[in-house]
Design goal:
Elements (H helix, E strand, L loop, with lengths): L3 H10 L12 H7 L2 H9 L17 E5 L5 E4 L3 E2 L7 E2 L8 E6 L6 E6 L5 E6 L9 E4 L4 E5 L7
Antiparallel strand pairs: 1-2, 1-9, 3-4, 4-8, 5-6, 6-7, 7-8
Length: 154
């Protein structure tokens, strides 16, 4: 289980190696993403609170990166944080997400990115539920839900 100490260590000393890397040009990303997905994932944007498709989603499945389809989070680790963004307390694997210190807007936060393609996902905070105490506060536009049993991506 990833702890806040792990998050800080990864953000300062280096992240785990991903299983694979996906690199595309800006033009290639623009071809496969909607303008809002591009703004959020490639330009580090944020969707308005309570506006995302997955804020109140409860379907069983995997939440994959919208850019490269890497599995990032499982529905069993999703929780209602009341913040207006989908929240999870752990990624699927230790090397699914990478972490960077973010000092924009006069705050110190930890940015969460897809470790495969560097897509901006959101931020991670230390105010989540047990057992990890983490809250991965993600943008719905950064995710794609693959429901269990559907065989199709949502």
């Amino acid at each position: 289980m990833i702890t806040w100490k792990d998050v800080i260590r990864f953000s300062t000393k280096g992240n785990p190696e991903p299983d694979r890397k996906v690199d595309k040009t800006e033009a290639e990303w623009r071809e496969i993403l909607t303008p809002e997905q591009f703004r959020i994932t490639r330009q580090k944007g944020t969707e308005a609170p309570h506006s995302g498709a997955y804020c109140e989603a409860h379907e069983a499945g995997k939440y994959n990166c919208i850019c490269c389809n890497t599995p990032l989070f499982d529905s069993t680790i999703k929780f209602e944080s009341g913040t207006g963004w989908p929240s999870f307390h752990q990624p699927i694997k230790e090397n699914a997400v990478k972490y960077f210190k973010d000092t924009t807007f006069g705050m110190i936060r930890v940015e969460a990115l897809c470790n495969t393609c560097d897509a901006h996902l959101g931020h991670v905070f230390q105010d989540g539920p047990p057992p990890s105490g983490l809250r991965y506060c993600m943008n719905s536009e950064s995710l794609r839900l693959q429901e269990i049993g559907s065989g199709q991506l949502q």
